[in-house]
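Can't paste images in this forum, so I'm doing it all in text. The chain is below; anyone willing to post the predicted structure tokens underneath?
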Amino acid sequence: MEQTQETESEVQNPNPLVIAFCCNWCSYTGADLAGTSRLQYPDNVRIIRVMCSGMVHPNLVMNALTKGADGVIVCGCHPGDCHYIDGNLKTEKRVEAIELLLEDFALEPERFRLAWVSASEGPRFAQVMTEMVNAVKKLPPSPYKAG
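Text version of the structure:
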């Protein structure tokens, strides 16, 4: 996995807090595989296990962002592999609502991401988390963060 070096001017928030909502059946297991494989990803990611990514309502995402998280990522099963048949498709439909809410709250769209990670994709999980944290580092700290 290729590591990117950020210049000092690109980093506005060197230690962002990223909340990762991970489905129990695929992405949480992918996170577990990344850990047992000793793959490195930023330690400022906080994983919240949910039974299905389809259970992550837009209000949960906005609640995390308005309570001080710098970024939120929702990880679920690849389309067609959902344990609950179409839960991840429901998640995909909610992205537009989340993007509108981000705009309403004057938050950058880069603060949210949806990613598909299967149980066997530990390296992908580590890569997605690293990419998310690096993207959020380029943003100023959350305006909702208690200072």
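The two ends are 35 Å apart (CA to CA). The helical segments are 27-36, 58-66, 87-104, 122-137.
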